[in-house]
Design goal:
The complex is a heterodimer of chains A (303) and B (271). Chain A is of the alpha/beta class and 303 residues long. Chain A is 31% helix and 15% strand. Classes of the chains: A alpha/beta (303), B alpha/beta (271).
Chain lengths: 303, 271
């Protein structure tokens, strides 16, 4: 019988759950046997030690936005096997399997929603779909989301969970870094706020592109965040890595993120940020090519 | 040997040529192509990274800004250049040069030659991902023409961190990949020995990138590879750079930026 990986938790999600009811769940951090109902009530945070279980994209969206307000876009964009890539199985088959086992069509889900009374564009990655890796379809959906925020003058929230670029799409994957970054460059120049939430794990080309390019960067406690993986670093340098290396707390200490936010506090923090950044009206000097008129960088003008 | 096997072997030959220890490196091209190169040092934040070099240089009757990944040839120089793998300081120095190029309206010429950004604890502590991401935006928005030429290895985000521009040129035996074959084999199979298979699957040769529409031009190398005749390789590279630069300089800057945006926007677009 299908048994979900213990690092995920199935919350009562309207459309997609991880699978069947789980009767026993063990916290990978404190080894406590957890009651699913209590864990669900705690938003997937271990009620003993505070370990944050990974969440599926639909669960996360349902947890944050006003009920019924999420309007999903690009649901039918599906990855294609442009390279004819084959590892232990053909990539096309891997895509099919991932779609079947996760119930989503790609590693990212996006749409417009209302959060704390504020309409916004929400983009959410899903680690369960091929490790949340960014292929061409993933990058396309993310960029569509960014461009929607730009054209509709809506604040942008991206929730990341990804191992990085998707190997099976080669250079087409790598170029999604440039594509998403260029779109965010336009968003930033237009004075539209972008909040990034980094969750476990956020690595590689995703950290080195859209995930780190936000006005405000938040992270969940204990999330692994970085560029190169610890294994790769150890193999390359034989360095002894410090305790807590690449955790959200480690990155906060090094000035890379603004705040580590426990999951139950996330709605409050997002509400506060949206109030501060969107109160004066988003992007009053909206311009598709904001830097076209001056050679010096245009300062963001707020109401 | 199966047909597939011989294709894989041919691909691997390209990988080895791209990494050939006698292959000309960025400074070899720079001294051959430009009249007057003045290397600038330091990111003004933390240090100077010798894996990424750069500065203004003369090309015909104009000044360009050169940004390049530099590998070392002797053991000592290899260590000094960190095998061409840059730390955040390298990318932040590049950012400083991008801003300066914009201020003085110098076209940017970037030479890519790295197996990737440096995987080190210090690089992570100082935000290597942040540094690369910031360059992607800066290059996308820089209001000057940008040419990228891959000399040998184009490795992953570490290459892209100085590699966004208006044209992507590749030396005939260079490669450019989302991950080096060894890393890809390690990720997919946890077995570095399957690097040859990975190299073929990744479609990383200059010819592959041209076929996929990602590279604009392949710069021919002397017979057997650029290591056999530095002068000939540099002449071919210089000629291609001059030709593309002349084309780009004729384009109004707003149009240039819109074209650059669309260049990346259309990769993987569904409509």
């Amino acid at each position: 019988m299908f048994r979900p990986k213990t690092r995920y938790v199935a919350l009562p999600s309207p459309r997609v759950g991880v699978g069947e009811e789980i009767d026993r769940l063990t916290c990978p951090k404190c080894d406590t046997s957890l009651e699913p109902a209590r864990l669900t009530a705690a938003l997937g945070v271990c009620y003993r030690c505070g370990y944050h279980f990974r969440l599926r994209a639909p669960e996360r969206i349902a947890m944050l936005v006003e009920p019924g307000s999420f309007r999903e876009e690009d649901q039918n964009i599906i990855a294609t096997d442009a390279l004819g890539f084959k590892d232990s199985q053909p990539y096309s088959k891997r895509i099919e399997q991932s779609r079947a086992s996760t119930g989503v069509n790609e590693a990212v889900t996006w749409g417009e929603a209302i959060l704390a009374g504020q309409p916004l564009v929400m983009v959410c990655l899903d680690f369960a779909f091929m490790g949340g890796s960014m292929g061409a379809a993933t990058g396309e959906k993310i960029t569509n989301g960014i461009e929607r925020a730009l054209h509709s003058r809506l604040p942008l929230l991206i929730i990341s969970a990804s191992g990085g670029a998707r190997m099976q799409e080669g250079m087409l994957s790598l170029m999604q870094m440039a594509k998403t970054a260029a779109a965010l460059g336009r968003l930033g120049a237009a004075g539209i706020p972008y909040i990034s939430l980094l969750t476990d794990p956020t690595m590689g080309g995703v950290t080195a592109s859209f995930a780190s390019l936000a006005d405000v960067i938040l992270a969940e406690p204990g999330a692994m965040i970085g560029f190169a993986g610890a294994r790769v670093i150890q193999q390359a340098t034989y360095e002894t890595l410090p305790e807590g290396f690449q955790t959200a707390e480690f990155l906060w200490q090094h000035g890379m993120i603004d705040l580590v936010v426990p999951r139950p506090e996330l709605p409050t923090v997002l509400r506060q940020l949206l109030e501060l950044y969107a109160t004066n009206g988003v992007a009053k000097d909206f311009d598709l090519q904001p830097r076209a008129k001056a050679s010096a960088p245009t300062p963001a003008v707020r109401g | 040997m199966t047909d597939n096997g011989s294709i894989a072997a041919a691909t691997w030959e390209q990988v080895e040529l791209a990494r050939h220890p006698d292959r000309p490196y960025a400074l070899d091209y720079i001294h051959a192509i430009f009249g007057n190169f003045f290397e600038l040092h330091g990111d003004r934040l933390f240090g100077d990274d010798h894996a990424i070099i750069g500065g203004p240089a003369g090309l015909d009757h104009r000044t360009v800004m050169v940004i390049a990944q530099q590998k070392g040839r002797t053991t000592a120089e290899r260590a000094m250049r960190n095998f061409g793998m840059a730390n955040p300081e390298g990318y932040r120095k590049a950012l400083r040069l991008i801003r300066q190029a914009e201020r003085f309206q110098f076209p940017i010429i970037a030479f890519v030659d790295t197996s990737g950004a440096f995987p080190g604890a210090g690089a992570e502590e100082r935000g290597i991902a942040w540094a690369i991401a910031e360059n992607l935006v800066a290059l996308a928005q820089a209001r000057v023409p940008i040419l990228t030429l891959v000399l040998g290895e184009g490795g992953s985000g570490g290459a892209l961190g100085i590699g966004v521009g208006d044209r992507l040129l590749m030396m005939e035996h260079s490669i450019y990949s989302v991950a080096m074959p060894e890393a890809c084999a390690s990720i997919l199979w946890r077995d570095i020995a399957r690097k040859v298979e990975a190299a073929q699957a990744l479609k990383l040769t200059a010819a592959d990138l041209k076929r996929m529409g990602l590279a604009d031009e392949i710069v021919p190398e002397p017979s057997g590879g650029a290591q056999n005749d530095y002068g000939m390789a540099a002449d071919a590279a210089g000629a291609a750079l001059r030709r593309h630069l002349a084309t780009l300089e004729a384009v109004a800057v707003d149009r240039l930026l819109e074209d650059r945006y669309q260049r990346y926007r259309r990769i993987g677009a569904t409509s």
